[in-house]
């Protein structure tokens, strides 16, 4: 569950689908593109918003690293996520949410100071320093109240 949720934050930039970006201002400086003020990216029904987004480019002008700062929010028809800051390494495929990080799907959620998702390994780590990691999961039931075939 967590892997599906986290991938969507910056994974929207990986797919071959159009992405609309909006901001109060945009600055292109050779190896980076900086969106500032009411930043909004839309891909399909997924929407990412933040105060600032910086996309770092490689020599071929392809995205290699992205970071979103300030009031980072993501939502689509099935899930929501929030954090103070988010980074995504396009080459290593690692997403990091920091500062009041929370990822939700329906009633299910995980909250932590930092949530790191390693896409290649399909592995996630949630860590909190000042308070505990919190999760909530509602088990899906199959027919007659028994777990479904997946064991969920």
Automatic annotation (TrEMBL):
UniProt keyword terms in alphabetical order: Periplasm, Signal, Transport
GO function term, MF aspect, one: glycolipid transfer activity
Domain Organic solvent tolerance-like N-terminal positions: 26-122
Biological process terms in GO annotation: lipopolysaccharide transport
Listed Pfam families: LptD_N
GO cellular component, one term: cell outer membrane
Signal peptide interval: 1-15
Superkingdom per UniProt: Bacteria
Gene3D superfamilies: Lipopolysaccharide (LPS) transport protein A like domain
rRNA-binding in keyword set: no
Entry annotated with the keyword RNA-binding: no
Name of the molecule in the record: Lipopolysaccharide transport periplasmic protein LptA
């Amino acid at each position: 569950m967590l892997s599906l949720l986290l991938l969507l934050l910056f994974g929207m930039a990986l797919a071959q689908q159009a992405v609309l970006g909006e901001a109060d201002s945009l600055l292109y400086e050779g190896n980076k593109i900086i969106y500032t003020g009411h930043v909004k990216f839309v891909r399909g029904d997924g929407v990412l918003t933040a105060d600032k987004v910086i996309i770092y480019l490689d020599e071929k002008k392809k995205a290699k690293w992205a970071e979103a700062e300030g009031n980072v929010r993501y939502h689509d028809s099935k899930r929501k996520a929030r954090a103070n800051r988010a980074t995504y390494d396009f080459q290593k495929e690692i997403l990091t949410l920091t500062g009041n990080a929370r990822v939700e799907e329906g009633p299910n959620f995980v909250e932590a100071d930092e949530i790191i998702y390693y896409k290649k390994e399909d592995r996630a780590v949630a860590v909190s320093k000042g308070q505990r990691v919190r999760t909530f999961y509602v088990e899906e039931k199959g027919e007659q109240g028994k777990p479904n075939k997946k064991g969920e």
